[in-house]
Amino acid sequence: MIEQVRHLTARMGKNNSPTIESYRDDGGYETAMKALAMEPEEVIEVVKASGLRGRGGAGFPTGLKWTFLPKEREKTYLCVNADESEPGTFKDRLILDFDPHLLLEGILITCHALKSDHAFIYIRGEFCRPYRRLRDAVREAYDAGLFGDNVMGTGRTLHCTIHRGGGAYICGEETALLNSIEGKKGQPRIKPPFPTNHGLFGKSTVINNVETLANVPLILRDGAEEFRKYGTEKSPGTRLFGVSGHVNRPGVYEFPHGIRLIDLIEDACGGVRDGNALKAVIPGGSSVPILTADEARELILCFDACMAAGTMLGSAGVIVMDETTCMVKALDRLTHFYGHESCGQCTPCREGSGWIAEIVSKIASGSGTPADLDKLVDLGRQISGNTICVFSDAVSMPVTSFTTKFRSEFEDHVNGGVCVAKKTTAATA
Amino acid sequence: MAATERKKTFRFSEKREKEIAALRGRYEYPQGLIMPLLWMAQYDEGWVSPEAMETIAEICETSPAWVYSLATFYTMFELERPIRYQIQVCHNLSCSLNGSESILAHLEKKLGIRAGEATEDGRFRLSAVECLASCGSGPMMQVNTEYYEQLTPEKIDALLEEFGRD
Amino acid sequence: MAKITLNGIEREVEENSYLIRAAARCGVHIPHYCYHPALKVEGNCRMCSVEIEGVPKLQTACTTIVRDGMVVNTESEKVVKVRSEVMEFLLRNHPIDCPICDQAGECGLQDYYMEHGLHDSRVTVAEKVKKKKRVDLGPNVVLDSERCILCARCVRFCKDVTGTAELVIANRGSHAEITTFPGRPLTNDYAMNTVDLCPVGALTSRKFRFKCRVWFMERAESICPGCERGCNIYLDRFQNEIQRMKPRVNPRVNGYWICDAGRLDIDWINTNRLLRAEEGGRPIAPEESDREAASALSKGDEVLLVASPSMSNENLFALKKFSEKVLPGSELVGGSFREPWEDDGILRLPDRNPNRKGMEAIGIPTGIEKALATSRGTVLLFENDLLGDQPHLGAKLEGKKVIAFASNRTATVAAADLAVPVTSYAEMAGSFTNHAGRTQPFEPAIRPEGEARPVHEILHRIAAFLGSDLNAASFDALRSEMLEKVSALSMAVPDGREAEHVG
Ligand SMILES: Cc1cc2nc3c(=O)[nH]c(=O)nc-3n(C[C@H](O)[C@H](O)[C@H](O)COP(=O)(O)O)c2cc1C
Ligand code: SF4
Ligand code: SF4
Ligand code: SF4
Ligand code: FES
């Protein structure tokens, strides 16, 4: 059995892991103490040297993003993306639930590096327990003088505000997130201007994912070199993989980048349930292209290998489907989701995502026609490329990859309405 | 509105007023408080009433329509009536692969309502919702603030009993 | 200036301007819906996508700032294709009920639809999302949600121009819909501009709904007489009746808007008009009325001429000349000032008289109360409802011979010894000088009904009876003379046709 590498998850499972006492017992906030004594630029250099890449989806180099802040700036915000809503993704919740102080220490160090005096944590509205744990942790941190007007006795100010979402997937998109904090509908902004120049309340802003920031204290503690010992050259460090669907042991697993997808499934997760054959895998959250079983067996889990394989590592939410899965019904679940979540400003996305959802559900119900399938394929292409944000690509990719790679199943559904999967599990079992 | 009809008004409690005052400094302009206040209203009353939206608009120096546009954009706000138990079953892919449809069907049967509807007494609203980031423990649902995971019909029966219904 | 290449032709355009605007200035129209030059850019309709060399994805021209050396193609195959795809998406939920739509004929959707010869639409009616039809948003504006393309122009207008934010888009995705807050209708003083702004027939004017098809109407360029702003307007006519007032773009005066009070104040043009001369309530022929007036003036009594700040400069000038040349002993003052209203910080200015500045420039003093108190003979009231506007002055008219030159039947007309019909601003050429001293011409929108004539013509005829030549029969000659003699007045050129093209 391949062993997990527990860096981010080192403290998971301990009693009272969310409390500040427990965190401090394990040496928590010592790194922050050290980092606050460094020059901000030095901290950025360490993070740059570590090669840390964003864990929110796009994999953008974190240190590099931080250097995009203009030299002269009035105020800087850090916004923490805890909106975790990508179907199949459930790893940030683990940190919020069981080690919120790890995130807070990451925020503390990052704000020092960015010369920011205010961090917002945007947490999705449905997260109630994580919210309570995070709220309590922030209170503890204030009480301990880690936040407030005299951070760790340095005389510096740092505030940390938790902003709760209200049920909108699109608020995970960074500019929608900013609008949502500002009291607007969570609709993505036109870029440029980019948030580093014109972000929250018009001020310079850096947005990072929870897991990204949770890595920061570890990098500062152990050094960039140690961080790079795990993972690959271009995807350094470990990763939280959330595995769901038809595996025997679903859950969040921490492994270095570069492991084989099949090892994750077969070994760590105990294989496909009921001894069934593997049919398909979505490796990085619902928005990335799906892989056939053959493709999945070859896949290496790092940013570049995924790109090369025509998919993406995204949020590392791995959705596993066995031979009983009806791919039309599986797509139906996803397109229903996208139809529900389009923010509705851009014409192609607003109309297209709803239209696509209708057609897929029609095909899944057995009343679709070959013309519907053609239209679906056309729409999958038409929707993307001419919109304000890449949500439309997130709709396009599953539609295009499902209908290409599992074309025959779609054809079977529109030619007589017979579903190939004997036991359909995507809908009624 | 007819002159005889007395208009109800909504006010936040004193405790809330204090929280609001503390939050003000965190947002560069008052509009930023809209979502926090929508949450407070819903938490305190079980829904966000039109009167609450008017009050929030006033505090946040914007129009009630603006508040309404947010309250309808974000799907978690209950705008119809106070609800005691918001039952939200995830029906996205990972939960669906593990049988969320049958869980939903079971709840529909037990409660005598369809997904999207509320029971007449306002105790339950049942909804099919999108991914709640609990994909590794599906099928799952959220009831108010709590997650219930790896659901089976038996677990649901026990829960409904606990909520005062069999 | 920046140099860009637009569809293969090198052009000089203003630096830092939006591409859509820069292109329009070069005469290149880029189809668009959500962009409006007077509103914040939102870039949501995606209709204005164009190809820019070196940029892999199409870019929206309404959000792109021109750069020196930019090479832009607005009609490439890719652009045309994407545009028709956007159209297809927009029409997916659109009822295509042009035959019963007020917007037909001036609808952005219909225009481009025709242009792009839309492929057989693959949307069956059953698939369209059903939305609300015929919702009264407020007293004057009606919404048809199924026709709405969610460009949010109306939303941005109410948020950023009037600051009232009564209109919003509620819900999300394909359920998104324009609405007001329950119980809070669209009542701001500029609400009807949303009807003009709406690129399709989703917002229509309750007053105008189904009154007549737009392609039967003709329009004249005019100036709103509602206040001293002097908003530039169109008066649209059908069968010699004013159907509606619409804003005419002028960035220096009113931008793209007019206020609802101004816009709605057109009924008086079509109703309750004084159509022939009356003596003591009895109709008389025009010559008879001219003769009557002339004889009243020739008695050698003191004569008081009361001008009004609602009269055109040309009429005021003719009147001034009349008092100096034909009746040297007469007194000429301005009267009938309408009560001020509030400056609303948008367009409305306190002074509700459209031509007070013109009256000043021509040299007509104010002071009607005093003049009335001292006058003893004949009083001539021009476009002046003294009894209606300032009833307390009524007593001062007692025992005097009153001749009213009026367009409408007013209390003053009813009480006058002689009433002479004159044209309203809608039936004649003229000009008003606004608060900022800008003299703006207007043209006749409809033919005068009955015997109504412009004041200057009538004065010319009366002068003739009195044996003088006022030289005011020809409007053009009169205006030239006025511009020559009154140095403070010079005719402003209408400004904004090009801006309007982009709207
Ligand atoms: C439609 C959409 C949804 C997204 N959802 C999330 C999310 O839930 N959580 C997240 O961290 N990033 C999400 N992202 C990515 C963010 O926009 C952003 O890239 C990320 O938060 C940056 O942080 P990182 O560099 O640390 O990854 C989403 C992006 C898009 C386009
Ligand atoms: S692409 Fe979709 S989600 Fe993104 S801004 Fe446009 S409408 Fe909104
Ligand atoms: S009503 Fe008209 S202006 Fe308003 S969003 Fe719809 S189409 Fe645009
Ligand atoms: S602001 Fe004055 S001039 Fe302009 S439309 Fe209104 S009343 Fe007429
Ligand atoms: S996106 Fe440019 S005009 Fe609408």
Q: Would you mind describing this structure in some detail?
A:
The complex is a heterotrimer of chains A (429), B (166) and C (503). Chain A has 429 residues and is α/β, with parallel strands linked by helices. Chain A contains 18 helices and nine strands. Helices cover 42% and strands 12% of the residues of chain A. Chain A has a five-stranded mixed sheet with strand order 6-5-9-7-8. In chain A, strand 7 and strand 8 (291-292) form a beta hairpin. The two termini of chain A are 32 Å apart. Chain B has 166 residues and is α+β, with helices and mostly antiparallel strands. Chain B folds into two domains: 14-73, NADH-quinone oxidoreductase subunit E (Arc Repressor Mutant, subunit A, Orthogonal Bundle), CATH 1.10.10; 85-163, Glutaredoxin (3-Layer(aba) Sandwich). Helices cover 42% and strands 11% of the residues of chain B. Chain B has helices at residues 14-24, 34-45, 50-59, 64-73, 93-97, 100-111, 153-162, and strands spanning 85-90, 124-129, 141-143, 146-148. Chain B has a four-stranded mixed sheet, covered by helices on one side. Chain B starts with 13 loop residues before the first helix and ends with a helix. Residues 1-6 of chain B have low confidence and may be disordered. Chain C folds into three domains: 2-75, Ubiquitin-like (UB roll) (Roll); 125-269, Alpha-Beta Plaits (2-Layer Sandwich), CATH 3.30.70; 272-489, Rossmann fold (3-Layer(aba) Sandwich), CATH 3.40.50. Helices cover 26% and strands 18% of the residues of chain C. Chain C has 16 helices and 22 strands. In chain C, a hairpin with a 4-residue loop joins strand 6 and strand 7. The radius of gyration of chain C is 27 Å and the shape is elongated. The relative contact order of chain C is 0.10. Chains in contact: A-B, A-C, B-C. The A-C interface holds A 168, 185, 190, 339-348, 350-355, 358, 371, 375, 382, 385-388 and C 41-47, 49, 57-58, 60, 63, 82, 85-86, 88-90, 92-93, 122-123, 127, 129, 149-150, 152, 169, 171-174, 176.
